[in-house]
Predict the structure.
Amino acid sequence: SESQRVGKIGSYILDIKSYVWTSSEVLDGIFGINQAFQRTLESWNMLVHPDQRKEMLDYFLNHVIREKKPFDKEYLILKHNSAEECWVWGRGELSYDKNGDPERMFGTIQDITEKKKAEILLFETEQTYRGLVNTITEAIYIHKDDGVFMDVNDGAVSMYGYSREELIGKTPLFVSAPGK
């Protein structure tokens, strides 16, 4: 339980026939639930953010149960006790009865909120950077120490007539070579 607390990873066991699950104390904290919370497939789906409820239920019923594949998905929840948004990464594997039918799912759910916030900030920063750099009409090259282009702006694309993909990974010798 200490390892779960440190890693922000809670565990669960789901009975497939009844769709009732049990959870560790850490998972209860991630979901913002207490011992009185009824742990059913429906109650889990109500913890999922409304924008993802249908997607996640379809994923579980079709991908995991029907196709018998592992559960491996990042999704947004609303903590039960506070309605706070929290990103989680759910993982789970099925166990089967003697007929080969899914019997239980054992798994973990990890709070990845800070990681997702960093990814979103990085994406937004990248979009801002691209917007600013691409409004400049002069050619801008970002390159490694050896001169190989890591990125170019729209000005460079326009000036030399190559696509961004054609320029990335090349050197200034490539764009100055005759032939295009």
